[in-house]
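Milestone 3.1: sequence recovery, worked example.
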């Protein structure tokens, strides 16, 4: 039996152990409380990305025709980047914002056709692979609630959708705009069908109103969680279709019709920004919220009226195509209100800058092509004078190299925009050493991104998360024939366009493949036509005429009057299916009553080119199957 002294010793040991456990638990709880407090004190972040709004489409940038009081107020309260560059079209800019990487490197450098999806990883010139993590991944990994409301345009199938890449809540549409081929048939900006967390749902109201409403709803839902939020709000306006309530268009009735509609959309967007700012103030969130406002490329339908003295517009390699507004506001943060930064800054800089501003951990030790601009935003000296950047998109035949105020456009044009904003005086012969420096940089950069340039994103089919996949002609490769398969109005016209999908069947098994000329919601036979569609905008403005069948009139009817063209009937009698790498080449008869062509096939695991062409009785290709549904 233990002695008294032994019992007392055991008692002391047990008491010490209990005290140690209590101390550890206390430290843990204090640590959790400290971490929770630190997290709650981090700033919220909102990125508002306007679509097709050029640098000159703001009254604070000198536009004499537009009044943008709420954006002007934001400009006055923010750090302004006056030589900020994105891409000349939307997808590359968006991919650079989201990844901090050059668009060609991350894979999404064109507006469609296999080049609008951000890779899951990229490869360097030595063959080393690096995973690509999006801005949303960084914020989510650091404890933020994450939401995306609006346009995405970085991939419409798993694993490229925003819901697959770090966002808790999403409401979006496929493709580049609401009336493009992957979007719900006859969407027209009002009461449209969009995807909420991957599920198709009908919405209510005008789409710009909707994006802001959903954003505010998400913010309110996060308040009880004591977590900061990160919101990506790419509004989709002022991209076509140029539809907005009549009252906004009438403010600019003295301008050409498309300009009046475009300016009307900006006026409405500016009002929404004012209402949103008031919401942040009322909720007590404005002071500790980083608000980034920017646009995704140069201007469009307002450039002929005012373009801040620049040459070019959307799609151009001159500054008018890729110089964009960018304001960053953080009222109680470290940055200087009303500061202009006139050095070369880039879309790729946004992610590393926000990581520094919010003191986010980088759990993947990711590298970026962009750089953090926080020192300059704090008013400290930051030497950006030697940085160079390449603007390149779509077909990659053309390019621009930016350095300080120098612009090399292609091989034969050199401009200094400090003295020549309009890029009217080619000085390549006067400054051959500058031209050589920028050409050499371009060659080095081109070699560096070459592994990505030679890679296409694959459409994932048959995995656990891709058992049911909807495809559209927006992701065809190697296009042939006449037309632009990104547009519903081209589909209505029955253009001869066709191509193939680059599909990766993840597992062997039985697959159901359904091919259509018209989307399922149109519920129409393959070889039948469709009546014209009168959008909400057309009805509101009492436009009721039947649109001309002549191709040259379609665009005018669409953009100015909101009347979608007649769907042409085609004499389709058969369909030819090919899966080249799997040795499948078969022809299927098409009857007058068929709304789709359906097959069930045993397919092996692997990659293949998937194509189905609709043909007439002589075997001539009339068009491709614009839509395909694959179910494992």
């Amino acid at each position: 039996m233990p002695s008294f002294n032994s019992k007392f010793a055991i008692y002391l040991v047990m008491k010490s152990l209990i005290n140690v456990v209590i101390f550890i638990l206390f430290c843990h709880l204090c640590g959790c409380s400290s971490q929770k407090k630190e997290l709650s004190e981090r700033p919220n972040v909102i990125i508002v990305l306007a679509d097709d709004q050029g640098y000159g489409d703001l009254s604070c940038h000198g536009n004499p025709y537009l009044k943008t009081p709420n954006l002007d107020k934001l400009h006055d309260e923010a750090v302004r980047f006056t030589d900020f560059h994105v891409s000349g079209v939307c997808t590359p800019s968006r991919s650079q914002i989201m990844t901090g990487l050059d668009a060609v490197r991350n894979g999404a450098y064109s507006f469609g056709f296999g080049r609008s999806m951000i890779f899951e990883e990229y490869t360097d010139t030595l063959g080393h692979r690096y995973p690509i993590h999006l801005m949303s991944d960084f914020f989510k990994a650091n404890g933020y609630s994450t939401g995306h409301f609006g346009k995405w345009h970085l991939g419409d199938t798993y694993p490229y959708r925003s819901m697959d890449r770090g966002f808790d809540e999403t409401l979006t549409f496929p493709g580049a705009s609401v009336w493009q081929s992957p979007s719900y048939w006859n969407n027209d900006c009002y009461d449209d069908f969009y995807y909420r967390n991957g599920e198709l749902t009908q919405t209510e109201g005008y789409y710009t109103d909707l994006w802001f409403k959903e954003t505010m709803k998400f913010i309110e839902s996060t308040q009880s969680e004591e977590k900061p939020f990160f919101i990506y709000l790419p509004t989709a306006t002022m991209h076509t279709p140029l539809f907005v309530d009549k009252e906004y268009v009438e403010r600019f009735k003295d301008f050409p019709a498309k300009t009046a509609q475009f300016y009307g959309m900006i006026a409405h967007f500016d009002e929404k920004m004012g209402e949103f700012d008031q919401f942040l103030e009322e909720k007590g969130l404005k002071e500790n919220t980083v608000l980034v406002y920017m646009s995704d490329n140069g201007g469009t339908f307002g450039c002929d009226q005012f373009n801040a003295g620049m040459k070019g517009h959307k799609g151009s390699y001159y500054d008018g195509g890729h110089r964009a507004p960018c304001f960053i506001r953080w009222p109680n943060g470290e940055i200087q209100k009303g500061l202009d930064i006139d050095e070369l800054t880039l879309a790729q800089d946004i992610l590393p800058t926000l990581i520094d501003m919010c003191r986010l951990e980088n759990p993947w030790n990711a590298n970026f092509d962009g750089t953090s601009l926080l020192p300059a935003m704090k008013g400290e000296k930051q030497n950006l004078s030697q940085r160079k950047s390449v603007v390149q998109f779509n077909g990659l035949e053309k390019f621009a190299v930016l350095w300080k105020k120098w612009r090399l456009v292609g091989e034969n044009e050199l401009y200094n925009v400090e003295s020549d904003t309009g890029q009217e005086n080619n000085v390549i012969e006067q400054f051959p050493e500058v031209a050589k420096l920028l050409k050499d940089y371009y060659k080095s950069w081109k070699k560096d991104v070459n592994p990505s340039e030679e890679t296409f994103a694959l459409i994932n089919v048959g995995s656990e998360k891709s058992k049911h996949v909807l495809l559209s002609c927006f992701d065809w490769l190697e296009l042939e024939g006449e037309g632009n398969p990104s547009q519903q109005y081209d589909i209505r016209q029955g253009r001869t366009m066709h191509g193939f999908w680059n599909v990766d069947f993840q597992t062997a098994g039985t697959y159901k493949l359904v091919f259509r000329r018209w989307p399922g919601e149109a519920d129409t036979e393959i070889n039948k036509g469709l009546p014209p569609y009168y959008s909400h905008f057309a009805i509101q403005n009492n436009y009721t005429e039947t649109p001309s069948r002549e191709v040259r009139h379609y665009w005018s009817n669409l953009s100015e009057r909101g009347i979608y063209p007649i769907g042409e009937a085609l004499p389709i009698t058969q369909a030819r299916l090919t899966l080249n790498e799997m040795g499948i080449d078969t022809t299927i008869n098409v009857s007058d009553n068929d709304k789709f062509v359906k097959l069930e096939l045993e397919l092996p695991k692997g990659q293949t080119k998937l194509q189905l062409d609709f043909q007439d009785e002589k075997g001539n290709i009339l068009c491709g199957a614009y839509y395909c549904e694959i179910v494992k």
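The CA atoms of residues 344 and 404 lie 6 Å apart. The domain at 459-530+567-631 is CATH 2.60.120 (Jelly Rolls).
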